[in-house]
């Protein structure tokens, strides 16, 4: 049975038959049927309604869905914001050269990109700059995809130019093709952004030397479809290359592999300027974070002292050494400092107790101070091409000692050339490859640099990292075993003297640190692989190429032979079969 509440009928003529003598309403027609006429001709949906329906309100910079939008703390990020505003208002880049139309701001996860984008928009509005923005967010299903991007930008463009050619062109484009938002990204952008602006500025000659319109796209890496990320950048590049009006476009994202490749493409490399937060002066970032922490802790202290009748906080809370410790842990990334502040400022707890939990001076009860940061790390690690190898190499970096060149790592673990870079291609939000030709004389002097000092704390804490946890006792044994096999292979090489003598001293120092980790407590049992590597190691052959060099020989004795023999002694004490070793 179909209820009348389930049926929607538009237009047409309805005829009801007089059936089985039942009474019916309406007048009889010539056929003897009851006829009902409704004047309900189809009403087409207005273009403005189609546009509004396709918009993602949460993606707008002034959306009411987010109450605490991130923005720069006063007197922080001054230098970087000045560079961006100079590019927008004067068309000049950071070297005072003629600016390009496309600016890409990139930085590690939690470096403050969205705060800079939001603060830049607010500065532009204060100066009367017309703009449209879109803030991607992977956890919001209305703005983690490309589907609503152009509609949202077009809506803001429509509002920015009331009663002008812009509005007419946008509505006309939708009227001509009511499925415009189902078309390709390029067709949408051309019809709803480029052509309306061209129509307007072709008549507004007095605006020729002013910024016509600014487009801000924040968090491009938060678009969950990587193919769509590339499509967006390709669309923007093609539009800038083909249009004859200057539309400055500001994009902020993490330096993810696909995005980097898109900006390096032929169509984009000559029309964009890159601004990297990771390459900015680390001193400036640390100074900004220190200022932020000092100001916010002062606010927290005042608020607590004013609301409590009990014991006040110490006058010098928190002490300078605590601030410096937090600055170091933040490693230039604002998300760490902001996470600490959000945790400590809870009005249901004492701020000093909450800060002690952050500093591991008090056990955690209830919510964990770094739950937000942990979710971020987990999300990025899930995108790894081979998480087992990634965690293996990260543990190598946590072992202590000296930085190790990627070339040496690949030789030591029998990886293909360039494999380390490939493994970390989607980890740009957490690590970066750096060149150091002075420290590394090798042909490809790349090494890994962590962008988050707190990543190690996360991965070594099983309760926080769960499936990503790194067991350093197990990994220490594994790395020492691999290093000994690598050194032994150098001895058996046909180029033995050259390959052994060429063993980097920083690697020997690192292996020394690894072997020192293997003490009585960590070596409860001796794994077979380590036992074999130790007992079969050709120590005499390994030392031989260095015997004529007094300094190098003494170096080897101190930083390799001594810890090697100490480890052998520990093995002897645990394996009665090999007691003669001692």
At a glance:
The chain is of the alpha/beta class and 582 residues long.
Can you characterise this structure?
The protein is an alpha/beta fold and 582 residues long. It folds into 5 domains: 9-37, no CATH class; 49-276, 3-Layer(aba) Sandwich (Rossmann fold), CATH 3.40.50.300; 282-369, no CATH class; 383-470; 480-582, no CATH class. It contains 24 helices and 10 strands. The chain has helices at residues 47-54, 78-90, 113-126, 149-160, 165-176, 185-201, 226-242, 257-263, 282-307, 320-330, 334-344, 351-358, 371-381, 387-398, 406-412, 419-423, 454-460, 462-465, 472-492, 496-501, 505-517, 528-535, 539-543, 550-574, and strands at residues 13-16, 27-28, 34-37, 102-106, 131-135, 214-218, 249-253, 272-276, 431-435, 446-450. The strands form 3 sheets. It has a 5-stranded parallel sheet with strand order 5-6-7-4-8, sandwiched between helices. A hairpin with a 5-residue loop joins strand 2 and strand 3. The longest helix has 26 residues, at 282-307. The radius of gyration is 33 Å and the shape is globular.
CATH architecture of the largest domain: 3-Layer(aba) Sandwich
CATH fold-level name of the largest domain: Rossmann fold
Q: What structural category do the secondary elements indicate?
A: alpha/beta
Q: What percentage of residues falls in helices of 4 or more residues?
A: 40-55%
CATH superfamily of the largest domain: P-loop containing nucleotide triphosphate hydrolases
**What is the general shape?**
globular
Please identify the oligomeric state.
Answer: single chain
The total count of helices amounts to: 24
Strand content: 5-15%
The main β sheet shows up as:
5 strands, parallel
Overall domain count = 5
Query: How are the strands of the largest sheet arranged?
Result: 5-6-7-4-8
CATH class of the largest domain: Alpha Beta
**End-to-end CA span:** 92 Å
Pfam family, one: NPHP3_N
Protein name: Nephrocystin 3-like N-terminal domain-containing protein
Domain Nephrocystin 3-like N-terminal: 95-254
Organism: Agrocybe pediades
